[in-house]
Each structure stands twice: as structure tokens, then as C-alpha cells.
Specification:
Elements: H1 3-21, H2 27-44, H3 55-69, H4 74-87, H5 93-100, H6 102-115, H7 127-137, H8 140-155, H9 162-182, H10 186-200, H11 202-236, E1 241-247, H12 250-260, E2 271-277, H13 284-298, E3 307-308, E4 321-326, E5 332-339, H14 340-346, H15 364-376, E6 398-402, E7 408-412, H16 417-424, H17 426-430, E8 432-437, E9 440-442, E10 454-458, H18 475-507, H19 513-523, H20 528-537, H21 542-550, E11 578-580, E12 589-591, E13 603-607, E14 613-617, H22 623-629, E15 634-639, E16 648-657, H23 662-673, E17 678-686, E18 689-698, H24 701-711, E19 717-722
Helix pairs in contact: 1-3, 2-4, 3-4, 3-8, 4-6, 4-8, 5-6, 8-9, 9-10, 10-11, 11-12, 11-13, 16-18, 18-20
């Protein structure tokens, strides 16, 4: 196509654009819009796009979609011309700002940021991705441009490469159809749905379209006969109105065919009749219900299919009263009753039959989009651009970034490479050495921005460090780092304590609290954990430790004389005996109430100040504290091999659906079937759900497991779990 031919077509499209947008144009707007068009024509007039169309004609087509199909004004249309000039380097950002305004610059820069995402490798179906688009676009008008661009691409679908075709369909289905619905752009939504089906299921689409055309004459005749008695009755009542009918959209008909499992001729609500009240109305709602009453007197309604969207409009803004009536021939017909005002809104599309049910969370972006929809449905009508005065989305507290696979992750503002790594996986975070962000290597403390694509670099020799905490803002990352550091410290402390015990035996020095306190004071340390860790690192000279422990041994520390230990006499211990260290008798102990150890649990002993030794489970909630703060008081302990006769106390938590007789069934199972003694019961029921706590007596862990297994079989019980005070 020669340039003159392109210019002729472009001029015609531009005049059509000005005609559509004229109600919103001021004198300065006209000059700026003309400047954008002429500049674009000069710089891009001979460039051909991916669909083998002149780029300047693409810009004008998108501008016409924005103005004619979406009702947008000049401020929203301008980026359609400017964005391609900026992308091809034909204009500088400063020129955009000075000539076309800061808003246009902001929108175009946001659009180029989205273009850099490589959308073919992004998971477009997630709510996070939709929020990423909104965030990067900087302004809602950028979203309108993207939607218009998607419509343009669908109009030239057959001319595009296969890879581009797949992406366009994907974006239409996952992003722009939901957006169009949320924004009240019903006509746009319908067009997108039709295009997606036409290209994805062409044979089915053509078949339904053909059958609809074949049915059109008979349906027209049926419509004419159907409305005659209604028209007469409404005329007698003095109600001014007009009648319309239309087929349902092909995608909606296809869904009905699948749902009802019938041929198209047997879809009972294949088309809808619309009654539009055109007179002056003092009460719209009352008049609509009056028409409903008249129609129902003529044709009996199916009350189960009554839909009242006039008393309270649908979330999308749609208002109409729907009823389904039956003709004397037994045919069902949907009748929509609305006023002229309601119809003008509804003509944007098929909102009444869009069954969009989004499962995602109610987010900041949903609220924002709903507000924009309300702006769109409330045009000032006095020559103003409906979005000209709209403020951009306030700075979000979150950013959206991409994995190498294209998955979108949501992170708080200020998040670092480390935060992202731990968000992906704990092991990846623990071994993180840095990252490639948008292809550039950065350190692990690098702060991320919206739209960043991140590839984590890791090493098997890397481990979490204390200074990592200052690089992270997410609680997940910080908790994982703290846990890793605590585990490392405990391991180091255990190694250091073992070394100290070996040296004490070698020096024949008694190991006790006074000795540990003396070492802490000398080396100016606060906790035994820190002291033991220093032994593990060999930060302390053992010769100095020996000197401290062997001097002035009068009262604080005494040398243990060599004594030949007698072989323990074999005797049968008590049934619940615990072996502490190498001893199996004559050591006072008690079972810790915080974790209620049972024979078969992995346990350890802890030396208390005045209660002797308490026995704890190794996974006791207090174990970490005991090991970290009082590791020198921890002793080895194990169950005597014949200690499993009990009884031991076990705490159980039982949850599920509440019902009459549930507690009776549970107690019957425990007492009658299992012969288990119930020590206490506490059952709470609310909103049909129960949460109970029981204390029972068992002989060992195996016995407890069998009790839990049997209780899980009780009707309505969902979960039985051992818990701790």
C-alpha cells in the first residue's frame, strides 16, 4: 500500500474519530489530537504491523474503538497515537510531556512497561496477573487501551502468527472479558466472548450461527404473534412502550445446549423479548412491576425464574426485571422489562446473562475497578471526558513480580530478592546468593519493583546469616531465617556442650550450674547457649577454661576423686520407669504437664530448681526454650523397655460437624468399646460445628494411636489430634 493511499484512509478514519469524540473536545483538545495524529502519520505512516497493516491505521482503529465502542474522550484516546511513537523511538518522553501532557506520558510509559513482560511466558489467568497489569499501567486509561488493542488484534486474528494468536485469545479470555464485565462494558464483553469462541471452536460457532439464521424468520413471526395481546393490554392501561427481540449470544446458547443437553431448536429461552417503557415515569420500579403484572395475566409465569434487578441492581450496574412465561403452545419465552434509562445502560452488552462468578478474594483492585465502572455509567454529558478528572490508583502497598516460568508473585512494597526467594521456597531462600533481575545480576538485598522478572542464584554452600534479617520485610522470610539460625545455634551448642563435658571428665571436674555461671561471668557472656557455641567454634582456649575450673575449688567447684563405679544391680524397675543417663533407679522425676509424655515418645530430662527432673517430649512446645536458655540442665532420658503398662494421660482435640447424640457416641466408643478412662471433657458447639477437648488415660503411644483411629470413624468427627496444655 502506497503512502498516499494510507494517508487517504487515515484521514477518513481521523475525521470519523473527531466526529465521535466531538462532544468531549475543547479547542485545545482538538489541536493536541490533530498534532498527535499528524506526528504519528509522518513518523509511522509507512511502518507495517504484525498483522500486515499500516501502523498508523492500527492506531486510528484502536482510537475509534476507545471513542465509539467505549465512549472515551481525548485524554484516553491520545496514548493510542503516542505509545507507538515512543516504542519506535520517534519521540522523547520530554516531548510527550510538553506537547501532550503528563497524563499521556504516564499512560504510555506504563504500557511500554507491560510490553516488556514477555506476556507469552506469563500465567495470565491469575488474579495477581490482572493486578500486575493494573499496577504497571499507572492509570485506568491504560487498561482501556489494552482492551481496545485486544479487540483490534482479534479483528485481524487470521493475519497474525500462531504464537500471537494464542496470546491474544489467552488475554481476552483470562483478562479482558472479566475486566469488561467489571467495568460495565457489556458490548465489549460480548464481542470478546464471540471472537474467542469463533476462533477457538469455529465449527461449533458456525453451526450455531447457521441454525440461528435458519430460525430467524420463524422466530420473527413468533415474536409478532407473541406481543399482540401484550401490546393491546399495555395500550389500554396507558403505558407507552416499545418492543424488541433478540437471539441470545452464540456463546450463551452453546452453554445452554451443553447444560440442557438438547438441540438448538429445543433451547426454551433461545431468544428474549424486551419491553422498554418510553413514557414519563414518576416511579420506574413501580411501573416495571405494573407491566410484569399485566404480562403475567396474559401468559403464566415460571416464578422460579423471576429475576428482580430493578429493586436492587446487579453489581455490574445492570437494571431490569426478568420473567419467563409460557405460551398456550407450551413454549417458554423470557421477557425483560425495563425503562429507557435502564436500556441505555444495558445496551452496552449482555450483562443480564453473564454468569461471571469470580472465586478470588475481594481486593483493592476490585474496589477500584468498581469505582471506575460507576464513573463510566455516570457521564457528565456536558462536553467532559468521563475519565478526564479521574485520579490514578493510589500507590499500592504491594508489588507484583514474575518467576522465570511466568508465575506472578505478590510481595509488599520494599521486598528484596531474599523475600522473593523465600516466597518461592524455603530451601531456595536459605541457599540464595543473589539473583538475575530482568537479566541483570543483583545482590540478595536488592529491592524489587513492579513487573521485575527474577531468577534466583543459589549455592549449596550458602546458609542463612544474622544480617539477612535486615534485608527482609516479609514475616515468612524473617521467620525462616530465624528458625534456621536457631537450629544452627542449637546444633553448635550441643557440640560445644559435649566438648565441655569431655574436658570436665578428663580434668575430673564436676559439671554443675555454679561451674557454668562462673564461666559465663569470666567470659562476659549472657547465656549458656552462647557459651557452648563458643566452645564449638574453638573461640575459647581450653587451657584457660581448665585454669578457671581447677583453681579455688574449695566451695564452688570440687575435684571428683576417682571412684570405681559399682555395676548396677539388676532389678525390675517400676512399670513407668524412666532411665536417666546411665541410671535406672533412685532418681526422682516427674512427667511434664506441658507435653504429657507417654511411653513410646522421644523424651529428654530437664533438671529443675526444686522439683527434681521433669521428663519432656523432644517436640514439646517448650523444648526449644529449654535447650537454648538452660542447655546445661538438659540430660538424656529414655523409657525403660518394660515401662509401657501406663496409665498415662493424653489430651485429645476433636472437631467436626455438630449433631444430636455426638458426645454420647464418642463416650460410648471410649468407655464401652475401648475401655478407656475419660478424665475430663470440654465440648463447644457453634454454628453447626463442634470443637471438643478430652483428657483420657492410655497405656502407650500405640494405644493412643488406636484410640485416635477409632474416634475418626465416629459419624460427624472430622479430625482427632493430640494436643498440649
Amino acid at each position: 500500500m502506497e503512502f498516499e493511499e494510507i494517508k487517504t484512509k487515515a484521514d477518513a478514519k481521523y475525521l470519523a474519530l473527531v466526529k465521535v469524540i466531538k462532544p468531549y473536545l475543547h479547542r485545545n483538545d482538538t489541536a493536541v489530537l490533530r498534532k498527535a495524529y499528524e506526528t504519528s502519520l509522518v513518523h509511522l505512516g509507512e511502518i507495517i504491523n504484525e498483522a500486515r497493516q499500516p501502523l498508523v491505521l492500527q492506531q486510528l482503529d484502536i482510537a475509534l474503538i476507545l471513542a465509539h465502542r467505549m465512549g472515551m474522550g481525548p485524554q484516553t484516546v491520545l496514548p493510542a497515537f503516542v505509545v507507538e511513537m515512543l516504542r519506535f523511538g520517534k519521540i522523547e518522553p520530554t516531548q510527550i510531556s510538553s506537547t501532550f501532557g503528563e497524563v499521556t506520558l504516564k499512560i504510555t510509559q506504563g504500557l511500554l512497561s507491560i510490553e516488556k513482560l514477555n506476556l507469552s511466558k506469563v500465567s495470565t489467568g491469575s488474579e495477581n496477573f490482572r493486578e500486575l497489569l493494573i499496577s504497571l499501567s499507572n492509570d485506568i486509561r491504560g487498561i482501556f487501551y489494552l482492551m481496545a488493542r485486544n479487540l483490534y488484534d482479534l479483528n485481524h486474528y487470521s493475519s497474525l502468527p500462531t504464537a500471537s494468536q494464542q496470546l491474544i485469545i489467552q488475554l481476552a479470555r483470562d483478562v479482558f472479558i472479566p475486566f469488561a464485565h467489571r467495568l460495565g462494558l457489556y458490548n465489549i464483553k460480548t464481542q470478546l466472548e464471540n471472537d474467542v469462541m469463533r476462533y477457538c471452536e469455529p465449527e461449533i460457532y458456525r453451526d450455531i450461527a447457521q441454525k440461528m439464521e435458519e430460525l430467524r424468520p420463524s422466530q420473527q413471526s413468533f415474536f409478532t404473534d407473541f406481543i399482540i395481546p401484550i401490546r393491546e393490554a399495555l395500550s389500554e392501561a396507558g403505558i407507552e412502550c416499545e418492543f424488541k427481540w433478540r437471539f441470545k449470544t452464540i456463546p450463551s446458547i452453546y452453554q445452554k445446549i451443553k447444560k440442557q443437553n438438547v438441540d438448538i431448536q429445543h433451547v426454551y429461552d433461545l431468544f428474549a423479548v424486551r419491553i422498554i417503557l418510553t413514557g414519563q415515569l414518576s416511579d420506574e420500579i413501580a411501573e416495571c412491576w405494573r407491566v410484569y403484572s399485566i404480562v403475567s395475566n396474559i401468559y403464566p409465569p415460571d416464578t422460579s425464574r423471576l429475576r428482580d434487578w430493578i429493586t436492587r441492581a446487579r453489581p455490574s450496574g445492570y437494571e431490569s426485571l426478568h420473567t419467563t412465561v409460557m405460551t398456550p403452545e407450551g413454549k417458554f419465552v423470557e421477557v425483560q422489562i425495563r425503562t429507557r434509562r435502564m436500556d441505555e445502560i444495558a445496551e452496552k452488552g449482555d450483562a443480564a446473562h453473564w454468569h461471571y462468578k469470580e472465586a478470588g478474594r475481594k481486593s483493592e483492585i476490585d474496589t477500584w475497578l468498581r469505582e471506575i465502572r460507576e464513573v463510566l455509567e455516570s457521564y457528565p454529558g456536558e462536553g467532559a471526558d468521563p475519565l478526564h478528572t479521574h485520579q490514578p490508583l493510589p500507590s499500592s502497598t504491594h508489588i507484583f513480580v514474575l518467576t522465570p516460568a511466568g508465575d506472578v508473585k505478590e510481595l509488599p512494597q520494599g521486598a528484596s530478592v531474599l523475600d522473593f526467594a523465600f516466597e518461592v521456597h524455603s530451601s531456595l531462600g536459605a541457599s540464595c546468593t543473589g539473583a538475575r533481575v530482568n537479566g541483570k545480576v543483583v545482590p540478595l538485598k536488592h529491592r524489587l519493583s513492579n513487573g521485575d522478572k527474577i531468577e534466583i542464584l543459589s549455592s549449596k554452600n550458602q546458609f542463612p546469616k544474622i544480617d539477612w534479617l535486615q534485608y527482609c520485610v516479609t514475616s515468612k522470610a524473617r521467620n525462616k531465617i530465624r528458625r534456621a539460625l536457631s537450629e544452627d545455634k542449637l546444633t553448635e551448642a550441643e557440640t560445644g556442650k559435649s566438648a565441655l563435658l569431655r574436658h570436665c571428665r578428663k580434668w575430673k571436674v564436676n559439671y554443675n550450674d555454679e561451674m557454668v555461671e562462673k564461666l559465663l561471668k569470666h567470659f562476659k557472656m549472657k547465656t549458656a547457649l552462647e557459651l557452648y557455641a563458643s566452645f564449638s567454634h574453638s573461640d575459647i582456649d581450653w587451657a584457660e577454661v581448665k585454669r578457671i575450673l581447677t583453681e579455688n575449688t574449695s566451695s564452688e567447684i570440687h575435684i571428683v576423686p576417682p571412684v570405681k563405679r559399682k555395676k548396677p544391680v539388676k532389678e525390675e524397675p517400676a512399670p513407668n520407669a524412666i532411665i536417666i543417663g546411665d541410671e535406672s533407679k533412685n532418681i526422682h522425676y516427674s512427667l511434664a504437664r506441658c507435653c504429657s509424655p507417654i511411653y513410646g515418645d522421644d523424651v529428654f530430662g530437664f533438671i529443675t530448681v526444686n522439683r527434681g527432673i521433669t521428663i519432656h517430649r523432644k517436640n514439646c512446645p517448650n523444648a526449644l526454650t529449654l535447650f537454648s536458655k538452660h542447655a546445661y540442665r538438659v540430660v538424656e532420658a529414655r523409657w525403660f523397655e518394660k515401662a509401657g503398662e501406663g496409665p498415662y494421660q493424653a489430651l485429645l482435640r476433636i472437631t467436626g460437624d455438630d449433631r444430636i447424640g455426638l458426645l454420647a457416641d464418642i463416650t460410648h466408643v471410649l468407655t464401652n468399646e475401648l475401655n478407656v478412662n475419660i478424665l475430663s471433657v470440654n465440648l463447644d458447639s457453634k454454628d453447626g460445628f463442634f470443637d471438643g477437648k478430652m483428657k483420657v488415660q492410655v497405656t502407650n503411644v500405640a494405644h493412643l494411636d488406636s484410640v485416635i483411629h477409632r474416634l475418626m470413624k465416629v459419624k460427624s468427627v472430622a479430625r482427632v489430634k493430640r494436643f498440649y496444655d
